[in-house]
Give the backbone structure.
Amino acid sequence: MRTDVPLLTKSDYMAGLQCPKKLYLKKYFRELEAPYNDAAKARMAEGIEVGHYARLAFPSGVLVSAGIEGDPIAVTASLMATADVIFEPQFVSTGRTVRVDVLQRTYENRWHVIEVKSSKAPKEGEGPKEPHLEDLAYQVLVLREAGLDISKASLMLLSRSFTADENSPDPTALFEIIDCTSAIEPLLPGAQSRSLGLLHMLARDTAPTVETNTYCAGCGFHGHCHVDQPEHDLVFLPRIKAAQVTELRQQGFRTIGEIPNSFKLSPTQMRVRNVVRGGSPYIDERLGPTLESMKYPMYFIDFEATKWAIPNYPGTESHQAIPFQWSCHVLERPQAELVHLEFLHRKPTDPRHAFAETLWNTIKGAGSIFVYSSYEWTTVKALAKYNINFASELCALLAEKSVDLLKIVQDCIYLQDFNGGYSIKQVLPAMVPGMSYADLAIREGETASAEYKRMIHPATSPEESAHIADNLLAYCKRDTEAMVALFHAMAKLCGDRPEELPNAKLPSPDDTQHSQLALGL
Ligand code: SF4
């Protein structure tokens, strides 16, 4: 048994609830964790910014360790006698510790604990998220054990009714404080036993044995825990639940192909199992007629958007999607040269009007407009909601002419190498060998969003901004190139004659006409 068990922090407790092995590895084998990517770092930076704004709502608050020297626990103890609002005070009790976002005196020695989150407040009729309540319950547990009289516990979340104007956000309007006292009281006994259990686990000499499952997605120790993962592991079956994975493993089945016919699956899951078992691709007979119904000129479009927890532009709300970039490949007629058009808003101003105007002027003459997922449709509907010029026209156009390639793939195709997923990043290398995102500096949307913010930030040099812009353009362009290549591969799968294919030659940077819409924006 270890005798040097470190204090259990709030984030340790939350990690341990998700997976005890994750907590153990975090504490003793941090070097095994994958480094944070740019998107994760951007989320952390945003959390810090939200915390800063939340503190502005309490003008009399005193921040522990900001300009105050000394041990935070000792500083906290001295402030408790005088301050009515303390930010980041630290308390310890029986191997556990918490730093509280906001501790507010309600009456003499009674306190209100407030946890700040960068999430939006729940919708009407809904309650706070369960992990947020667990987080708050752990804090109340430790604070009470440390001797504090906690009379109230709340979450401070971004308000759904706040809309930014030209001025700096009013922090009292930006946030909503939700009293969760009665919701967390019943959670306290569980928090007590679970946190003690985690401390006991941390005293062991070896990490607990935890079977990998669907909940491992996104864990920083994924690489470490999955070295022996079989090809076609059960977790790759679309929409399989963790309990089903456990049940099948208990019966001795490890891979999708081994799932017995008697096990209840959805039609999509059955299709995936049969492809994995038999090895032959699934091609639905509806694929050919579906592709033949498409009309020239064909437009393949993709958008990138970002969002700010603290709204960045007048008239916008917290976490509202702000599209800043589109890419479009155009095929006028069979065998025509593919034309590429693109837009990227490079200035630190609201990009939505220019985005919608340039897009409308580009795609209004389309025969069929190809998208991958409903994201583009959702984005233009959101623009219309905020009365952005040309957004209503775009909505009407997409309603009439958009074709979702994702839905066609989901309905009509499955190849073993999809590995249970239908995202374009999974489907593309399987359908178009040799084509992927691996050569790009930006390879997924969340990083594109973070990089866009960096590009327009005043502290970024013009050279670095130009470099980021090139990376963003390359990423968005690859998405529409991928869609064209995918369409071509789909046509090939259903045996179209080469002259009926949209363009037998796959697009590449060299053979694609390129035109950036500057429009003086
Ligand atoms: S990869 Fe899975 S089993 Fe391993 S630490 Fe993470 S959640 Fe736990």
The first strand starts at residue 62 and ends at 63. The radius of gyration is 27 Å. Confidence is low (pLDDT under 50) at residues 497-521. Residues 19, 21-22, 25, 210, 212, 215-216, 219, 221-222, 225 surround iron/sulfur cluster (CB under 6 Å).
